[in-house]
Amino acid sequence: MKPLVLAHRGASAVAPENTLTAFDCAFEMGADGIELDVTLTKDGIPVVIHDDNVDRTTNGHGPIKQMTLAEVKTLDAGSWFDTRFRGAQIPTLAQVLEAVRGHGIVNIELKSVTLKSDGLEQVVAKVVEQAGMRDRVIISSFNPFALNRMANCSPRLPRGLLYADNLPIYLRRAWLRPIAHPRALHPKYTMVTPKLVNWAKSKGYAVNTWTVDDPEEMRRLIGLGVNAIMTNRPDRLKQVLENS
């Protein structure tokens, strides 16, 4: 079975990441789903942005958590990428789910680094439920405690544990079942080996890997039987899959 094509922050090689335009482009390219990042504004609204601050991807400055939604909506999230996208906004999670409903899967990465909850998990679960997207999302995070909180507040939402090669193997094993309770593993692509894929599938875990734009690497991962590949170039991955 061929892996799903998940557009990393949308079609972020051709449009400003984590914007509605990038998500629209991804589905126009034939992506099976999108991956996005979520954090809370000062007034507790889940918005879609990767970084802790708005400096890199907008014309603003400062931490997103210190801004209200009204302040966030004044920012230009498109011009940094190309002036053709001037006026693009940072969307709320609710706006994205409304826009993509019926198009595909949404991988929601919780941007949480804390042991204690800031309320992100509960708010995200509520927005997903209100959008009627419970069966079309997967919740991922590098933070196993965030996944644990999500499991407690909304156990029916599937969860994926993100990790990179800088995480010691004993921590990956310690966090896997007792804390994160994931249904899928989301390793960096450099960590994906036949041994990992076989072990994960023997334990009932899906393997969804990130972030792959090189065609040769795409072919390697397809051959290993991963379940999903996240890419900034969903058009390229679709082409590789069609020729495989």
The total of helices stands at 9
In percent terms, what proportion of residues is strand? 15-25%
CATH architecture: Alpha-Beta Barrel
The SSE order reads EHEEHHEHEHEHEHEHEH
CATH class: Alpha Beta
Quaternary structure type: single chain
Q: Averaging pLDDT over every residue, what do you get? A: 95
- Can you tell me the number of structural domains? 1
What is the CATH superfamily?
A: Phosphatidylinositol (PI) phosphodiesterase
Strands of the widest sheet, in order across it, are 1-2-4-5-6-7-8-9
> Uncertain regions: pLDDT < 50 for 5+ in a row?
none
User: Within the CATH hierarchy, at the fold level, what is the topology?
Assistant: TIM Barrel
Structural class by helix and strand composition: alpha/beta
Number of strands: 9
Descriptive overview:
With 244 residues, the protein is an alpha/beta fold. The chain has one domain (4-242): TIM Barrel, CATH 3.20.20.190. 34% of the residues lie in helices and 18% in strands. It is built from nine helices and nine strands. Helix 3 runs parallel beside helix 4, helix 5 packs parallel to helix 6 and helix 8 (215-224) crosses helix 9 (234-242). The protein starts with a strand and ends with a helix.
